[in-house]
From TrEMBL:
Start and end residues of each Glycoside hydrolase family 2 catalytic domain: 282-597
Alphabetical UniProt keywords: Glycosidase, Hydrolase
Organism: Cylindrodendrum hubeiense
Domain Glycosyl hydrolases family 2 sugar binding stretches: 13-181
Name the UniProt record assigns to this protein: Beta-glucuronidase
Enzyme class: hydrolase
GO molecular-function term, one example from the UniProt record: beta-glucuronidase activity
GO terms, biological process: carbohydrate metabolic process; glucuronoside catabolic process
Length: 603
């Protein structure tokens, strides 16, 4: 799915700003049909932002069910009646329904990927309309991520879920109105590779909304100086670039791929679309992860889209600041844990040479984790009553939408299709294998992984042979061997050597970390102290350096983040190297010294 853009043939209108807001009075919104009338401006909310922390109101923050966003919108008077108009939502978490005046337009389930619908047949240039978007935060066994709702004796509804971050909801990303010509480019798929002698390859496929003769589709590729380096025609072809400038980690180079549809006869440009293209190759060879045929070692973080007040709302200021903090530390990569991030994040990573492991929203497919925390016997994860065929169908759709949106980003080098599923339980292979096959069919150019949790040991895990890279989440010294880093070091090394011996694949430690209260200091190994977090990380690094297959380290996590407060989580998850407002803890210097030294050695 192409991101809307403004250019000589297309127009784009942002609908971000202040919207009227209301909480639904019933779980069944059909009973009140709030979209048929004007919603009061008594409550207003910014878009993009999660709504939960905007108001000083616990009932809104913890609401389970539907809310409404509404504003007036005008189709620009200058838009031609011969054009086509679309409404685009970059995300609605987790279920969105859109209404134009009294008319139901479209709905979408899945809180982190975009959806859109045509409105040409409903509105004319210069016409104003009432736009209402209903958003539900409800999770069930049929959704990704999964959850269940409990009806409490006092009449309230409580959302239960298995993921360890707050269930922020609302319109956390942008909303747009855009126009395209009557004949337009519907999608572009780009893949790149390297041939001998420094020749770069750009394979492309152009999809149009109606059949167009090949000779009417013109392609040009320009370099960063604006020089045309190649031309082509047709919907499906290959461009070869002699002495190509490669997209490199830490040294991005982006060509501009411009596709045009010409009219039949006078060669007038009917539609055009420009796409940034980084020429690079990605592959797994033995126990190495190769970018441009050179071994690459991942350093960086698992992150969250999480900031005070905005929740998961996209914020370009926070985004750029976070990237600069990662650069200051010497990090070269991050994982979009545990859902697809805003596409602007990937655009920025493309432009600045940051490597991305891109993840679906399939977190919480493991009933044993919560059961273990609270000390009760876990029910089976994969069953008709829990993670089932309907969950799998939603999961597959999430994979389709992730790849459809992000397939052209040079920064994305690895797909993660699930975080910590119950990979040692019966039913895991039957659930996951079709999803791995689907991912490879949709994108044969990138490796595929999932993140394995510690309970699914190398002896018990049932699915790791299906994947290209081993991604391990491990917390020796925190959830086990807490306070005993010597015992933790022995257990970690034994674990990693077991995976290395059995599979010989690249191992990325996608999570390792310890909760740390900023300002708490101790001489000895006292969990929650800044010194313990530092020594914890140093212990893991010693082990990484002794295991040949380790090809990456992503600390959990970049910054403290909000989650449901429990006896285990007081005011959020505190495993961040930075506090939630981005102040460094002592461990930041540990990582900065290590990663910057690694960068110098690699040069």
């Amino acid at each position: 799915m192409l991101k809307p853009q403004a250019n000589p043939t297309r127009e784009l209108v942002s609908l971000d700003g202040i919207w009227n807001f209301a909480v639904a009075s019933s779980p069944n919104i059909e009973t009140e049909q709030a979209w048929t009338k004007s919603i009061s401006a008594k409550l207003q909310v910014p878009v993009p932002a999660s709504y939960n922390d905007i108001f000083v109101d616990k009932a809104i923050r913890d609401h389970v069910g539907w809310v409404y966003y509404q504003r007036k919108v005008t189709i620009p008077r200058g838009w031609s009646a011969s054009e086509r108009y679309f409404l685009r939502l970059d995300a609605a978490t987790h279920h969105g329904r859109v209404y134009i005046n009294d008319h139901f337009l479209v709905e979408h389930i899945g809180g982190y990927t975009p959806f859109e619908a045509e409105i040409t047949h409903l509105l004319a240039p210069g016409e104003q309309f009432r736009l209402t978007i209903a958003v539900s935060n409800e999770l069930s066994w049929d959704t990704i991520p999964p959850g269940r709702i409990e009806e409490l004796p006092n009449g309230k509804r409580k959302q239960h879920y298995q993921h360890d971050f707050f269930n922020y909801s609302g319109l956390a990303r942008s909303v747009y109105l855009y126009s395209v010509p009557n004949v337009f480019i519907n999608d572009i798929t780009i893949s790149t590779d390297l041939l001998a002698g420094g020749v770069g390859v750009v394979d492309f496929q152009i999809d149009t909304n109606q059949p167009v003769e090949n000779e009417r589709i013109k392609i040009s590729l320009t370099d960063e100086d604006g020089n045309v380096v190649a031309k082509s025609t047709g919907q499906n072809n290959r461009i070869e670039i002699d002495s190509a400038h490669l997209w490199q980690p830490g040294a991005a180079y982006l060509y501009q791929f411009n596709a045009e549809i010409l009219s039949d006869g006078d060669a007038k440009i009917l539609d055009s679309y420009e796409l940034s293209v980084g020429v690079r190759s990605v592959k797994v060879q033995g126990n190495q992860f190769l970018i441009n045929n050179k071994p690459f070692y991942f350093t960086g973080f698992g992150k969250h889209e999480d900031t005070p007040i905005r929740g998961k709302g996209f914020d370009p200021a926070y985004m750029i600041h976070d990237f600069h903090l990662m650069d200051w530390m010497g990090a070269n990569s991050f994982r979009t844990s545990h859902y697809p991030y805003a596409e602007e994040v990937l655009d920025y990573a493309d432009r600045h040479g940051i490597v991305v492991i891109n993840e679906t929203a399939a977190v919480g497919l493991n009933l044993g984790i919560v059961a273990g925390v609270f000390g009760f016997k876990a029910p089976p994860t994969f069953s008709p009553e829990s993670i089932n065929e309907r969950t799998q169908a939603s999961h597959a759709q999430g994979i389709r939408e992730l790849i459809a949106r992000d397939k052209n980003h040079a920064s994305v080098v690895l797909w993660t299709i699930a975080n910590e599923p119950a990979s040692s339980e019966q039913g895991a292979r039957e659930y996951m294998e079709p999803l791995v096959t689907l991912t490879r069919e949709l994108d044969p150019t990138r490796p595929v992984c999932f993140t394995n949790m510690g309970h699914a040991t190398v002896e018990k895990d049932l699915i790791s042979d299906l994947f290209d890279v081993l991604c391990l989440n491990r917390y020796y010294g925190w959830y086990s061997q807490s306070g005993d880093l010597d015992a933790a070091e022995q257990a970690l090394e034994k674990d990693l050597l077991g995976w290395q011996e059995k599979y010989g694949k690249p191992i990325i430690m996608t999570e390792y970390g310890a909760d740390t209260q900023s300002g708490l200091h101790a001489v000895c190994d006292v969990p929650w102290s800044e010194e313990y977090q530092s020594r914890f990380l140093e212990m893991f690094h010693r082990v990484f350096d002794r295991v040949d297959c380790v090809t990456g380290e992503h600390v959990w996590t970049f910054a403290d983040f909000h989650c449901t407060s429990t006896m285990f989580r007081v005011d959020g998850n505190k495993k961040g190297i930075f506090t939630r407002d981005r102040r460094p803890k002592s461990a930041a210097q540990v990582l900065r010294r290590r990663w910057r030294e690694q960068n110098r050695a690699a040069q």
